[in-house]
Amino acid sequence: MSLEQFKDRNVMQNYTYIPVDKPPVKSMDKFKQVVKRTFKGELFVGLWVVFREMVKFNIHTVKYPLEKLPISPRYRAVHKLYRLLESGYERCIGCGLCEKICIANCIRMDTRYDENQRKEVTEYTINLGRCIFCGYCAEVCPELAIVHGPRYENASEQRAHFVLKEDMLTPLDFLKEGKQEEFPGFGAVSPNADERIKKTPLAY
Amino acid sequence: MTLTEFVIATIVKILVVLGLFSALAGFGTYLERKILAFMQRRLGPMHVGPYGLLQVLADGIKLFTKEDIVPQNSVKPIFMIAPIIGAATAFIALAAVPLLPEFTIFGVTIHPIIADINVGVLFVLGVMASGLFAPLLAGMASANKWGLLGAARTAIQLLSYEVVTGLSILAPLMLVGSLSLIDINNYQVGGFTDWIVWKQPVAFVLFLIAGFAETNRTPFDLLEHEAEIVSGYATEYSGMRWGMFFIGEYANMITLGFLASLLFLGGFNDWGFIPGGLAIVLKVTFIFFFFLWTRAAWPHVRPDQLMWLCWKVLMPIAVINVVVTGIVLMM
């Protein structure tokens, strides 16, 4: 699509004209309409349609708490903080970009320098009562440290502060079992990244 | 048969009919939910018992233990009596309906009809018609505008469609020459080709349409049209009083199924290789299923359309049908 097309606001609507008979005026015409509609058999078409659906038994029910629909990797649900796969250290470098970009102003982080003069995140909270799940924080994160997880059942007694850093960060034992899977959504490395990268001459 | 035997046999029959048809009415709600669900690609009740079969029991427990609310400004005695009328008339109507052919068990011949009166059809239709007092009184007594609207609709709908029912079965009655349901059944004893529906197809269609209106089923369930008048006459009802309306409604549906199959579809005569008892059960089941089927498929009508249909279309057709039948009989 060219830019000119994109700028054109006079959008053509593809309305289809459905021919409607003129409303009958004379009583004879009204009578004819009644007879025509009576013998049209539309009611039986309706009966046939529901009967066909019953016989097909093509059930669309999802028994929700027992089975759940698969959700897209780009679905934006409650956040997660990831750890580095090799060292188990937090990926978050405390840059503060997510806090800065958050348009709902719900991310709050405190950082300090630890004894090795590295940034350490001491406090990291997301107020899910304010969060609009826009996904900017995950998008802006240079380290892919904060992502949107798949947990969408957010019932809680208090919604204000129930996402603390400990809740979001991958537990260490979980990581050691190799259960932290790489986030497949926006910003993540594509699964076939190795094939798509052209090797530099130094690799030969 | 002595008088004592007769009294005991009748009481047993009454208890069997009451118990069986209350249970069937309860099971009818389960069937309705299931069939409607399948037609709408859902599963319906699934969690209580295997395939949700115990849902009937769960609903029963719920209805019995729910708080029985009587609104403050209602006319209390009438408000409390109205559902009883609904359920009672539905069961009384079954008294004159021959449910199965005669059968012998332990050397005793049993007539599966509580009272073989010679005006069976009149009795059944009359009692079913007096059932209209249930929604009428319920709606008027419950001090609720939706209830009042439901009651008004009861008056217009049930009263008008009584006329169509009466006129539509007049033509087959002229052929048979008797009001007894057993005589009507015996008239069709010759098998499939003797069914009155082949001689009176118009009357059959009219009777079914009027039956929908009288049992307050979906294309014509204006009394409690929840999209328009919350729940109509049943708005203020809760617990078992509400439940009795529904037992009455489902019992009425079954009665109407029996009436239609006895009057038009050959009754409990043997149908080819199918024995009579099974034949009538199949017919009633089909008509019951048809009630649910139309509920899934067809939209509601407006009250004015309903009255238009009744007085300007169905009643003239019924009268013409009676006249034509009379002329044919005279020739």
TrEMBL record, chain A:
Reactions mediated catalytically: a quinone + NADH + 5 H(+)(in) = a quinol + NAD(+) + 4 H(+)(out)
Subcellular location, record wording: Cell membrane
Binding site for [4Fe-4S] cluster 1: C92, C95, C98, C141
Source superkingdom: Bacteria
Keyword rRNA-binding: no
Note on cofactor: Binds 2 [4Fe-4S] clusters per subunit.
Its EC number(s): 7.1.1.-
Family: Belongs to the complex I 23 kDa subunit family.
This protein's name: NADH-quinone oxidoreductase subunit I
UniProtKB/TrEMBL annotation, chain B:
Transmembrane segments: 6-31, 78-100, 120-143, 155-175, 195-213, 250-268, 274-294, 306-330
Domain of life of the native organism: Bacteria
InterPro entries in the cross-refs: NADH_UbQ_OxRdtase_su1/FPO, NADH_UbQ_OxRdtase_su1_CS
EC numbers, comma separated: 7.1.1.-
Lipid bilayer topology: Multi-pass membrane protein
Keyword Cell membrane: yes
Keyword rRNA processing: no
Stated role: NDH-1 shuttles electrons from NADH, via FMN and iron-sulfur (Fe-S) centers, to quinones in the respiratory chain. The immediate electron acceptor for the enzyme in this species is believed to be ubiquinone. Couples the redox reaction to proton translocation (for every two electrons transferred, four hydrogen ions are translocated across the cytoplasmic membrane), and thus conserves the redox energy in a proton gradient. This subunit may bind ubiquinone.
UniProt-listed PANTHER family: NADH DEHYDROGENASE SUBUNIT 1, NADH-UBIQUINONE OXIDOREDUCTASE CHAIN 1
Subunit structure: NDH-1 is composed of 14 different subunits. Subunits NuoA, H, J, K, L, M, N constitute the membrane sector of the complex.
Name of this protein: NADH-quinone oxidoreductase subunit H
Species this protein is from: Hydrogenimonas cancrithermarum
Organism placement in taxonomy: Bacteria, Pseudomonadati, Campylobacterota, Epsilonproteobacteria, Campylobacterales
